[in-house]
Records
---
Amino acid sequence: MAGMLEGKTALITGGARGIGREAALLFAAEGARVVASDLNAEGAAETVAMINAAGGQALSIECDVTDGAAVNAMIQAVVDAYGRLDCAFNNAGIAGFQVGAVGKKTADWPEDGVDKMIDVNLKSVWLCMRAELKQFEKQGTGGAIVNTASIAGLHGLPTSSLYVAAKHGVVGLTKTAAIEYATDNIRVNSVCPGYIETDMTKDTMARRGDQILARVPAKRMGVPKEIAEMVCWLASDRASFVTGANYNVDGGFVAS
Ligand code: NAD
């Protein structure tokens, strides 16, 4: 049986590790030609080596998604290599501990940390979408975008205010672009992961994992593959009537 993404070219940002790597592996296993992009060139190259070793087709691109010119060049590089772009997973992101905001309430976030959080977790998604949408329009045959939001895109979370603000922004961008491009056969959706076992959550889980898991109905963290499965489906033609939606993959967190 043909894979869900057979014949598609897919770009994944944040593809060096965690959720992005797992999505890259699954997209390739489902038949896509994959471009794994990341600030971390070595990690992205490792992801590509894993895909190629499994018989898939992939290449890596080093790109800082906060740099608009670099993002445009990344899309051009995808098209130069594979002739087109069909699906994009805008997934690169950072957490509060990466901008000096651990345990800080709203008024205590450092201003440079606020700027960085908005740049990496919100503006970069717009920069990627801008380039992807223009490429889809040029091709004229539609396309699918999946953005990584979070349960923090739907809920307030104490001491995570700018992360929460950025992820709410991602949900808003997703809904608006979905409406604007629906008749062009371009679908835009987001995925809202709960607490997932990646490098991003190690620090938080070490500090207050028990407290967090007590609030998750499934009483466990998710694994990156569980997010990748949803993203792969959303990126595929099987989700052909799904646009402007947010899918929680969170062990029941948002429902509780
Ligand atoms: P991770 O830290 O393992 O991976 C993030 C990747 O993004 C890294 O490879 C990093 O190098 C890359 N990146 C960071 N800044 C970048 C930049 N400016 N340009 C290009 N690449 C950059 O984290 P993860 O858990 O895999 O997170 C992936 C996405 O999922 C993020 O958007 C995160 O906010 C979101 N998310 C994660 C969880 C979770 O529990 N892990 C929950 C909800 C949402």
---
Amino acid sequence: MKSVLVVSHPLIEHSMTVLRDKQTRADEFRRHADIVAKLLLIEAAKDLTTGKLTIDTPLAPFDGQSLKSRVIVVPILRAGISMLSAAYELLPSIAVGFVGLVRDEKTAIADKYYEKIPKINSDDNIFVVDPMLATGGSMDEALNIVKAGGAKKITVVTIVCAPEGLERVAKNHPDVPIITAAVDEKLDSKAYIVPGLGDFGDRYFGTE
Ligand code: PRP
Ligand code: URA
């Protein structure tokens, strides 16, 4: 595996506790999911490249830096959409691609129902975002899709991982770094992450 980075930050610790609390309602859940997504995306953006840009401050010329990298954010529908507003705020000029995958409730096997990926150049930075990495089936499939589209520089940004999912993604995509807020203990018999936070999509979209 290239790397798994568990981002440690007091704001993440606080927001993760709010997200995990079963009493937290959708409005607060969304607000804290957005905070965590932002802090993780800031970490993912650390390797983006900048180029020199000379501007004039009100007082003098200044040699500054301007972002050069093209970033494509690929949320895995549906829950990955929750991380898009944070991405727009930090990187307003991103392109966005979508992969729609849903897990069968009994087998936990991910089934693709939608795909719309923009043209990818080999030097584009692709952030594949999905808050939950459980068995890793959805992420594995999404990574296959973006790689088939030509992606070479890929980063996974996820909020909670299970060790089982990390292992699967690491085995099948050792070239892809993973940035996360938490690596939890295990999966339960229904492939939910424990202690986890429940069904992220249902809690975020208020469809419980
Ligand atoms: C959830 C989650 C991930 C997937 C993770 O989506 O958002 O996409 O499960 O599980 P895996 O690692 O075992 O594949 P779900 O299929 O529940 O759909 P949703 O996003 O529409 O709620
Ligand atoms: N998807 C979720 O939303 N939560 C889990 O615990 C596992 C998959």
